[in-house]
Amino acid sequence: MNIVALIIQLASGAVGGNLAGALLKKFSLGTVGNSIVGILGGGLGGQLLGMLGVGGAGATGGALDVGSIISSIAGGGVGGGVLMAIIGVIRSAFKKSG
After folding, report:
1. CA distances to 38, 58, 94 from 54, in Å
2. What are the respective helix, strand and coil percentages of the chain, to the nearest 5?
3. Which end of the chain is more exposed for a tag (fewer CB within 10 A), N or C?
4. How many CB atoms are located within 10 Å of the residue 76 CB?
5. For the residues of 46-64, what is the DSSP string, one character each?
6. From CA 25, how far away is CA 10, in angstroms rounded?
7. H helix count then E strand count, the chain
């Protein structure tokens, strides 16, 4: 595992979570909530892509080249945004029922 790739995934996950929160204001968890959920989603998304061999630290055997950096950013950002949206939808559903 490459720690630099993981840091890139976590940071881009935070950005992705906040970007998704800005675009989906109805499901936003607030800046701190979006960041925390985005970091979790970024780590999960980036690692999932790495395990699938699509990119990140797993595809290049730990080497950090331009392709793995870009895939870490993309995987982390998308993972952060998707997890933030999922958590936001669940939170919104519980607010309506309760």
Report:
1. 20, 8, 35
2. 80, 0, 20
3. C
4. 34
5. HHHHHHHTSSSTTTTTT--
6. 22
7. 3, 0
Q: What residue ranges do the domains of the chain occupy?
A: 3-89
pLDDT at 38: 96
Around Cβ 31, how many Cβ atoms within 10 Å?
13
pLDDT tens digits for range 27-76: 999 999 999 999 999 999 888 887 887 765 544 455 678 888 888 899 99
Nearest residue to 75 via CA among 54, 48, 46, 55: 46
pLDDT digit string (tens) for 79-91?
999 999 999 999 9
User: Residue 16 is which amino acid?
Assistant: G
Nearest Cα neighbor of 9 from 96, 90, 98, 54 is 54
